Amino acid sequence: MFAVSAADKYTMETLGNTFRNNPCARYATDVIFQQTNMPSGQMKEPSAYYSENHHLHGYKVEVSVLPNGLAINCTNHFSGSEADIDIFRNNAKFHQQHLLKSNKEKELVDDGALRDKYPETWVVLADEGYQGLVEDFRAITPFKKPRMGCLTIKQVNTTDGIARDRAIVENYFGRLGTLWAVCSDKYRWDEKHYDTLFRACVALTNYHVRIHPLGSEDGLNYQKYLKHLHAIRHEARAKRLAVQRRYREKRKLRLSRMLAAQIGRPSGGFRDESSSEESEDFLSHESKAQLFILTKSKGAGTNR
């Protein structure tokens, strides 16, 4: 209900304020990621929740925010592996409905980008992850630096303008996470309750924004949240590397003992058929070389 009421109340005709650099934009859209416990089950299930961008398991939710700082839509959660642009397309019904100009809005001035291609709709602002969306929507995204090339001054200025306008979404995410730990801490509860909890927090955040408008400090809080995710990622990687290092050390010790036991056997043979196959997968090249040299030396001594 909060999204419907905000969307109906704040149309382009009655909004009162617009994005500074893109006044023909209806709202800005982005996806927020939240870490969760790694799902149990078959291998394909946990991997579906794994975000290659954050290197963590979690959920994604798309949120659309008006220039006055109010969210007018949030989707159900998606798995962390889902691409942002695919989430947008999955939510196409909402975007088609709320970007469409009303009869009265068609009389408003519209000199924005892609006006000729999409004369019946307003603009949606998105980030670089939505490249290619322009084929189906009147979406403005930052210019991507070409390989082995540079952006023009005009393209750089346009990209900066988009980033400044889109900051409203990051500010909203910062306020959301600051107010409600359930939206920023690692989610450990039942997945089936996630959408209800998230929507409730968005509704309450909208109420808070009406009283205390978004500011740059909210954007800083969101950047802190992203850095926190980055730190968790590196901590998890360090733990994983430590486990691998301990495994290699134990394996090296085990192989050394195996090598000593093989050399100490009678000259009739230093290993049986079963141990040959088992140790073949574990012996390093260096261990194999040492074993070969020592065996040859022992064989030569026996022949004498």
From TrEMBL:
Region (Disordered): 265-285
Single annotated GO MF: metal ion binding
DDE Tnp4 domain boundaries: 36-206
Alphabetical list of InterPro entries matching this protein: HARBI1_dom
Keywords for the protein's UniProt record, in alphabetical order: Metal-binding
Database matches in Pfam families: DDE_Tnp_4
Organism the protein comes from: Phytophthora fragariae
The protein's name in its UniProt record: DDE Tnp4 domain-containing protein
Cofactor dependency: a divalent metal cation
